[in-house]
Design goal:
single chain; alpha/beta; Spore Coat Polysaccharide Biosynthesis Protein SpsA, Chain A; seven-stranded mixed β-sheet; two-stranded antiparallel ribbon; 7 helices; 9 strands
């Protein structure tokens, strides 16, 4: 298994944190600014993601000033009307294309799942390259988590076109390509446990010592 931060695998990978949703089930506002164990979920996500990539950006809509404490570049969706995580991935691909040297891959992370693995990117890259896949995504407990994915920059135009045609579901879009699925252990805590509602945040507090 690749070690966390394995530079031989994560070289040429940049990342995007997806925080562009409306958080309606949390009562509105920014889920990523909710506090878990004395830290915002944003801070926890950055701490896990940043060591795995060469550069990191935050996808969020609205006034970027509210995220100034993150220290990250904030990129908004170029597709309007809250088109979902695919729009955030497109924003990440657009940003990644401006980086020099040009990266090989974009890794995406959801900011409402603060327990994701510290070796996520290394394992996704290893699987994608071993299988000759177009994309890679995480799996746990028999469920795919495509927002925790690895995306080649060459698919930027394809994704923009699909969004323009009304595509919104990540798994429907990834089904068009060869995907390497990487399974992560979901015990004692599912690393992709996501926080959508206040009761999920309370459950995450209980899971925190096990993560």
């Amino acid at each position: 298994m690749a070690a966390p931060g394995d530079s031989s695998l994560t070289s040429g990978v940049v990342g995007v944190l997806l925080a562009g949703g409306r958080s309606s089930r949390m009562g509105g506002g920014d889920k990523s600014l909710q506090v878990l164990g004395g830290q915002t979920m944003m801070a926890r996500t950055i701490a896990r993601a940043a060591p795995q990539v060469e550069a990191l950006a935050l996808n969020a809509n609205g006034d970027p000033v509210r995220f100034v404490a993150s220290g990250l570049p904030v990129i908004a969706d170029s597709i309007q009307d809250f088109a979902g995580p695919l729009a955030g991935i497109l924003a990440g691909l657009e940003w990644a294309a401006t980086q020099r040297p040009r990266p090989r891959w974009l890794a995406s992370f959801a900011t409402d799942a603060p327990f994701f693995p510290r070796d996520l990117v290394a394992r996704l890259v290893k699987a994608a390259e071993a299988e000759g896949a177009d994309l890679a995504c995480a799996v746990s407990g028999g469920r795919a988590h495509p927002v925790f994915g690895l995306w080649p920059l060459r698919l930027e135009d394809d994704l923009r076109r699909a969004l323009g045609e009304g595509m919104r579901k990540v798994d429907l879009w990834t089904a068009r390509y060869r995907v390497a699925s990487v399974t992560f252990d979901d015990r004692p805590v599912d690393p992709f446990f996501n926080i959508n509602r206040p009761e999920d945040l309370a459950e995450a507090e209980r899971k925190l010592p096990l993560s």
